[in-house]
Structures are given as C-alpha cells and as structure tokens.
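Long-time lurker. I teach an intro course on protein structure, and each term I like to show students one example going from raw sequence to a predicted 3D structure in token notation. This year I'd like something fresh instead of my usual example. Would anyone be willing to generate the tokens for the chain below so I can use it in lecture? Attribution to the forum is fine with me.
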Amino acid sequence: MNALLEPRARGGYVDPNWPPPFPLGKNEAPVIIYGYTPSFALAMLGAILFLLFTVTHTYQVTRYRTWYFASFPVGLAFEVVGYIARILSAKKNPYNLIYFIIQYFFIVVAPVCLAAGVYTILSALIHRLGRQHSVLPPRVILWVFITSDAIATVCQIAGAALIGVKQTRREDPAVANNILLGGLAYQVFAMGVFIVLTAIFIVRARAQIAQQRLGAFVAAFSAATLLIYLRTCFRLAETAEGLGGDLSTKEVFFGTLEFMPIVLAVLLFTVWHPGRCVGRHISATKEEVAEYSPSA
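-- Reply from a regular --
Happy to contribute to a lecture. Here you go:
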C-alpha cells in the first residue's frame, strides 16, 4: 500500500476520488500512469475538433486533388483515435493500460504525418515561385525530409509500441523510452534544418510572394510549421524526463504544448489550404501558376 502513496517515484498517480481497482485486472496498473486523471472535457474537445478537421481536410484534399497533402488527414485521424482513448481513460478507467497505450501511441505519432504534409508544401512553393530561390532543388528537399520523416516515424512507432509492451508487462520502459527519444530528437533536428531552409527560401522569394499574392498563405504556412515544431520540442523534452517527469505528469503542459499547437496549426491549414493557395501538384505547371492567385 505504501507504494501507492509514492506516485511520482513510480511514474504514476492515485486519484483519491477514484481508487485503483482491486484486485487488479490483466490490463490494469496500480497507479494512473498519466500522472493525473485525464480531463474528460479536454479529451472530448480534442476528439470532436480533430474529427471535424479530419472530415474537412479529407474533403479539401479530394476537392483540390492535392494528393501530396494526403498524409495530413491521416495524421488527424490518428489524433481522433488518441483522444477517444483519453476519453475512455477519463470516463471509464484511468488505470487501464490499454487506453493509456493507445492514446500515447497515436497522439505521439500523429504529428509525424502532419510534418510530412508540411514538407511537401515547401516543394510545391519552390516549383511555383522559382527554383533559383531555394538552396536545394525541390525534389531533393522532398526526398530528404520525407525520408527523415520515415526514419522518425519508425523510431517513434517502435519506441511507443515498446513502451506499451513494457507497461503491460509492468517492466522498466527505459530502453523503449530511449528509442522514442531518439526518434523525437532526430525529428527535432530534421525539422530545424527544414525551418532554416524554408526561411532562406522565403527571404529570397519575397518579391515573387508579394507579386503572386501569397503573403497570407506563406505567413500561415510559417506559423503552422513553427507550431508543429514547438510541439515536437515539447515531446522531446517530455520524453527526456521520462514518464514520471513534471512535463508528463501535469496535464496543463499537455494542453498548452501538445493539444493547442496542433489545433492551431491544423486550423491555419484549414483556412489557407495548399490546394487552394498553391496548386494541385508538387510540380506546378505554368498554367497553374497563372491560375492560382489567391486573394486571401
């Protein structure tokens, strides 16, 4: 019983208003691994918003035939699954390991798909505004960062899945956490390089951006990219601390540094969708360049 009174040391929390089940079921932990009882209101808000965003972005991708941006609604669908699992934790049983594992896996991995969509936008902008403004050719940028995204995805999926296995077996998840940490660190590095290359391109192409009336879209694209990067940096810091650290055991950090940045980034791309503002293809034709001159 004393072990239950030391939740921080064990990476968990015992809710005085929601005692742990006794006897413990096969998929139940003696503590709430979140470090808190998840907020039902936040989880429900996340599930509803991301469901609406998934439907909207799926429609936009189909309408504008921007198949290069198809990873974005996939990432949003991942978010929906993750927040539904948080709803079950908050409302049904916060001690259930399966709910924790599902939400952790899907919410951690989802922004990797969102980042893949962001990478394709820069390639489309380079084709439209002029390759001479970019440090690297658009095809090179696309393949380098999509490959980086794939590496980060594999590491994060493997790490998140192994954390789930270790938690289910009630074993030390340190090694699995380090795998996830490596994937997040690589993603932070890759996105950092991407942001530098994007900034150089935008500065060099500023005259073309103004001429083609793309200022609002480029501003939205830049802000959304930085928001996704902020969230990735938060996850890196959280993972470095481990499951029992302050960043993972206080829901205010989850709400302000995980939930809010992703919602705002997705909202920006909902209003300024690349299919409407840039074009239907990563490699834009001259006709498309002339056709797409958004007034937004």
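Some talking points for your students: The domain at 27-291 is CATH 1.20.1070 (Rhopdopsin 7-helix transmembrane proteins). The chain has a mean pLDDT of 87.
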